[in-house]
Design a protein that fits this description.
- By secondary structure, this protein is mainly alpha-helical.
- The protein has one domain (about 1-95).
- The chain has helices spanning about 1-10, 20-40, 45-55, 60-70, 75-95.
- Helix 1 (about 1-10) packs antiparallel against helix 2 (about 20-40).
- The protein starts with a helix and ends with a helix.
Length: about 100
């Protein structure tokens, strides 16, 4: 059971690193989720969505608030799509 606790903590403590892409961040979450699945531990899609949102940096606060205040929360894969769009928008905005 130690591996299960380790992986659950790793999932919940997952934070997006400075300069990391959304794709890379979501891949790390997916890898831990798959590790848990391999030992029979299923993580609900809604929980993954909340974990992913919780690990985004402060610069994503407006995006986070918009998603969390919406009546319908996106699933994990839909959130990845929205985050990718937001990342692209942010990069375009920050271009010189």
């Amino acid at each position: 059971m130690q591996i299960k606790s380790f992986l659950k903590n790793k999932l919940k403590d997952n934070k997006m690193d400075k300069g990391e892409s959304i794709q890379s961040y979501f891949m790390r979450i997916t890898q831990v989720k798959n590790g848990l699945l391999s030992i029979g531990e299923v993580i609900a899609d809604r929980e993954l969505t909340l974990i992913a949102l919780g690990g985004l940096p402060r610069s994503w606060n407006v995006f986070n608030t918009t998603i969390l205040n919406n009546d319908r929360k996106p699933g994990f894969n839909e959130l990845l799509t929205r985050c990718t769009q937001e990342e692209t928008r942010m990069m375009e905005r920050d271009k010189p």
